[in-house]
Amino acid sequence: MNRILEGLNVLELGSGSAAASIAGVVLADAGARVIKVEPPDGDRLRTENPSGFLVWNRGKDSLIADLRTADGQEELRELARAADVVIEGFAPGTTDGWGIGADALRALNPALIHLSITGFGKSGPYSGLKAYDSLVAAKAGLWARGSWGHRDGPIMFPVPWASYGAAMQSVAGIIGALLVREKTGRGQALDSTLVAGLDPIDYFVSTIVQLMAKKGESTSGDSRSMTGASRFGVLLATRDGRFIQTSTMLPHQGKALCEVAGVGDVVAKDPRFSGLPSFANPDDAQEWEDLLMEAFRAEDFDHWLPLLQASPDIAFEVAVTSEEGLEHPQIVHNGDVIVVEDLNLGPVRQVGPVGHFAKTPIVIERSAPELGVSTGPLVAHDFPKGGEAAPEHPFAGITVVEFGYFYAMPYGTAMLAALGARVIKIEDRNGDPHRNSFGPEVASTKTTAGKESISVDLRTAEGRAIAQAIIAKADAFLTGFRSGVADKMGLGYDELKALNPRLLYVHAAGYGTDGPYAHRALYAQAAQSVAGSFGRQVGYWTDPAQSEGFSVLELQAVVMPHLNQLVDGDSNAALAVLAALSLGLYHQQRTGEGQFVGTSMIGGNAWAYSDDFCSYEGKPPTPLCDSDYYGTSALDRLYEAASGSWVSLAVRSDAEFATLLETLGLDADDRFVSATARAEHDDELVDLLGKAFKQKPAAEWESTLSAARVGCVDVNLLGQPVFTSFDPVLRETGLTVAVEHPLYGEIIRAAPPIAFSETPARVAPPCVRGQHNRSILAELGYSDGDITKFEELNVITAPA
User: Fold this and answer.
1) Spatial contact of 257 and 248, defined as CB atoms under 8 Å apart
2) For 98-126, how does the pLDDT look when each residue is reduced to its tens digit (9 = 90+)?
3) pLDDT at position 226, please?
4) Which string of DSSP letters, residue by residue, matches 411-462?
5) Mind listing the pLDDT tens digit for each residue in 223-234?
6) How far apart are CA 45 and CA 49, in angstroms?
């Protein structure tokens, strides 16, 4: 079988690191030999998150080595001599102290690619914080969403977004370093962070808060008010308590929803609703939403579902749990759910491959290994001889052409552009609608960063010829539109394959290339619903019993404020696109072979929720937050501290718990002597810790407990966009950078997601529509006169 990473040896280190595990499993799925180096008592994920361990470690081998001992360290050194990649998830300085850090291992094997995943990098005041998902999210401001929720204070959502994001970014970084090694013969050291893994979730608001600051406006208010009076997504409740997430990004989608709801005539006659999904003021927007709410609350779910399914212009999904998402017809059709036989648990239904590759299919046959069980030694092979000069950036020299709108696919290619790829965006005369969704060139600040744009009318023969000429010289082409759209524009797979046989063609659609839902539009909030975001983020309040008999007014007052989720449907998909595209490019660059690759938004979201997007006999329940979203337990929870501040606490071991009690000045208590006992007395422990934390401000607790190596941070109550835009530590440590926006001047944004020791990533500004018309056409051989003629004929449209 032709597997993309066949023959590569990967060592994975770092007990309890979800990010290292996820990065490792993507490589293992693609054919790499991945050896998970575990301590004698096993990776902590085996007990802390058994379902996550099961899915994130399939296809790997397990090797027991106590890296705190001389024997374990020496065993790792011997393995590193033959390894291609090391993925390390330890705290900064840990492996250096053991003599097995990046420099030490690379001295033994200059061809080695060493990637380290930390919370906030290896320097600066934040480097000492524990790299736990909840802590990084709290420090980055992700929990600061209470101002528009059901209560004051931060709200926790127990999803490992930081680990998932860092893992997919790490996969791309490793592939980029492998491509460099093909040329130079040398490996290099890479650094990835959980905080960078969270950056995709901030779609555009960091730009908005900076523009507000430039105008002297407050940036600390309700983030929803920053986007104006709009309803790009409406959550509806049926009479029997089922929730339906709709997306109304475009006017015809909102109107189609009104028709199905039976309020189409009312809306059409009222001038206040003529611009939906945008409105003149919040009151008009709310009245439109109320009309839909009243209509849907009048009938049961079984009445509405067939009507919604019969209208292809309505983008919607039903609120489900992750396990229920396994049954979604399109998930099943795509192969985004597979069955892997486990020696002890039997059949395990779980997330499928990150991409569906026509020539190099990913076949997953082995479950996660038992502790210490291996299938044999590392694969013997020669390292690349190299001899060429190092490229300027990891993906330099690779050209990717993008044909798609909004965020899910375009941000995936934007991350690849930050790693050095040349990305050319094909747009029509109006441009990507995302450019003006929240103000001129605001939402597109991230999705067009580092790209070139050509504005061409593909409805003309000349326009199609231009696009085809660009793609004929490219390495990859991506489209995010539904099947058939690209074909109508002369950009279908068969046509482009005939022009460029080595082309990697990626269809990154909402639902997939074909199947029962493939003709439907899909956006972020609905896409995440398929994967179980409702069940994971706000599960308590989606139970029909919580809203039984409620009027619409009562629903809006009591239940709906509890259902405000973090919107991750686009960001999760973008990260999966990045990983799949990187893998496809690795094969294409090494072999010269093109192929068709299919990804989907629903598949990418299933990956983000993959530790619960699985089912098997005896599966333990995934920890969910309490009904007010303070946390999943007393030791993974938000606590109010003095002066209105909050801490986020994450304690993972008995030793950490003992240190916590000692630092807080609390006596050991028989009720809390073990993890089992603590679970039985969780409410009592919450009360005990809650009283203690109120004695000092959160900043003091963060300093004191972090110094004692207990996971605790001062919760950022200003929000992730403000943190990214203005936090001085991020700037000082290189985790954010400044770029010159073509309309708004200097804008601060997250640095490229991976740092490379030899071939740095690229920082470049966003582009405006059609900015590179002339340079791209001149490169294709067109004269100034030809280009002017194209403008006169409206084949191309100059930038505004």
Assistant:
1) yes
2) 999 999 999 999 999 999 999 999 999 99
3) 45
4) HHHHHHHHTT-EEEEEE-TT--GGGGBTBTTTTHHHHTBTEEEEEB-TTSHH
5) 444 445 888 889
6) 5
Please check whether residue 625 is in contact with residue 532, taking contact to mean a CB–CB distance below 8 angstroms: no
- Nearest CA to 417 out of 720, 761, 793 is that of 761
List the one residue out of 572, 576, 581 whose CA is nearest residue 399: 581
Is 40 within the bounds of a domain?
A: no
Instruction: For residue 646, give the CATH number of its domain.
Output: 3.30.1540.10
Local structure of residue 549 (DSSP, 8 states): T
φ, ψ (nearest 5 deg) of residue 139: -70, -35
What does the alpha-carbon distance between residue 19 and residue 167 come to, in Å, rounded to a whole number? 5
> pLDDT of 641-676, one tens digit each?
999 999 999 999 999 999 999 999 999 888 999 999
Reduced to 3 states, what is the DSSP secondary structure of residue 748?
A: strand
- Please answer whether residues 542 and 237 qualify as being in contact, where contact means their C-beta atoms are separated by less than 8 angstroms: no
Q: Dihedrals φ, ψ of 507, to 5°?
A: -100, 105
What are 365-418's pLDDT values in tens digits? 999 999 999 998 898 899 999 999 999 999 999 999 999 999 999 999 999 999
58 to 27, 40, 55, 357, 647: CA distances (angstroms): 11, 20, 6, 19, 35
What confidence category does residue 149 fall into, taking pLDDT thresholds of 50, 70 and 90?
low
- Dump pLDDT digits (tens) for 572-617: 999 999 999 999 999 999 999 999 999 999 999 999 999 999 999 9
pTM: 0.96
Distance in angstroms (rounded) separating the CA atoms of residues 374 and 774:
57
Paired tokens of 514: 């074909």
Q: Judge contact between 628 and 151, C-beta under 8 A.
A: yes
Q: How far apart are CA 408 and CA 523, in angstroms?
A: 9
Measure the CA–CA gap between 483 and 507, rounded to whole angstroms: 8
Task: Transcribe 72-127 into DSSP letters.
Answer: HHHHHHHHHHH-SEEEE-SPTTHHHHTT-SHHHHHHH-TT-EEEEEESS-SSSTTT
The structure tokens 């109120």 sit at 694
Number of domains in the chain: 1
With a cut of 90, say whether residue 178 has pLDDT above it. yes
User: Which residues lie below 8 Å from residue 736, measured CB to CB, with a gap of 6+?
Assistant: 724, 727, 730, 748, 749, 750, 751
Helix axes 301-310, 251-261, angle to 10 degrees: 140
Q: Are strands 189-193 and 754-756 parallel, antiparallel or unpaired?
A: antiparallel
Find the range with the poorest average confidence among 38-52, 75-89, 247-261, 418-432: 247-261
In a domain, 704, yes or no: yes
Beta bridge partners of 9: 33
Quote the percentage of the chain above a pLDDT of 70.
Answer: 98
| Mean pLDDT score of the chain | 95
**Structural domain includes residue 73:** no
Q: Which two tokens stand for residue 369?
A: 């290994």
CA distance 46 to 63: 14
Output the 3-class SS for 146-159: HHHCCCCCCCCCCC
Which residues, in sequence order, are CB contacts of 95 under 8 Å at separation 6+?
13, 67, 88, 101, 102
Dist. CA 117–CA 724, nearest whole Å: 19
Q: Which domain holds residue 683?
A: 634-715
**Helix, strand, coil percentages for the chain (3-state, nearest 5):** 40, 15, 40
What angle (nearest 5°) sits at the alpha carbon of residue 532, between those of residues 528 and 534? 85
Cis peptide before 369 (omega within 30 of 0): no
In a domain, 679, yes or no: yes
pLDDT recorded at residue 249: 82
First-to-final CA distance of the chain: 51
